[in-house]
Amino acid sequence: MADVLNGWKVLFEGGGDSSRVTPQGSCWGGNPYSISELQSIGGYTSVSGVSVAYSESGATANVTFQTNKGSVTIGGNDFYKAFNLRAPGRIALKSGLFNIEKK
């Protein structure tokens, strides 16, 4: 999950080339960031907790993570985009209403 947060950091807060925040692997092409490259930009190395808030319109409003850098809250739409670009194994969120849990 830290890789997704680092991708979000580059996409929405800057600090790197957002065009390189793409899935890893030969199928996508281009020059995607490696996990370690994104980590050196974003600085997130671990996630210890997560909570989700929902809007009255039936979508995920925001996701709050407890990380090695403290608490970070990400808007639901922004997290949706970052997750779908960097999630491992090509898993994807299919709607704006989702839940995230830490096992």
Layout of helices and strands, plus pairs?
Blueprint (H helix, E strand, L loop, with lengths): L1 H12 L21 H8 L4 E8 L5 E8 L2 E6 H11 L17
Task: Give an overview of the whole structure.
The protein is an alpha+beta fold and 103 residues long. It has one domain (2-90). The chain is 30% helix and 21% strand. The chain contains 3 helices and 3 strands. Strands 1-2-3 form a 3-stranded antiparallel β-sheet. A hairpin with a 5-residue loop joins β1 and β2. The longest helix has 12 residues, at 2-13. It is globular. The chain starts with a helix and ends in a 17-residue tail after the last helix. The mean pLDDT is 94.
Briefly say what this structure is:
By secondary structure, this protein is α+β, with helices and mostly antiparallel strands. It has helices spanning 2-13, 35-42, 76-86; strands at residues 47-54, 60-67, 70-75.
Q: For the largest beta sheet, what order do the strands appear in spatially? A: 1-2-3
The helix-and-strand class reads alpha+beta
N-to-C CA distance: 12 Å
Largest sheet descriptor: 3 strands, antiparallel
Number of domains: 1
> For the CA atoms, what is the radius of gyration?
13 Å
What level of helicity do the residues show? Answer: 25-40%
Secondary-structure element sequence?
HHEEEH
Number of helical stretches of at least 4 residues: 3
Low-confidence stretches: none
Keyword list:
103 residues; 21% strand; 30% helix; 3 helices; alpha+beta; three-stranded antiparallel beta sheet
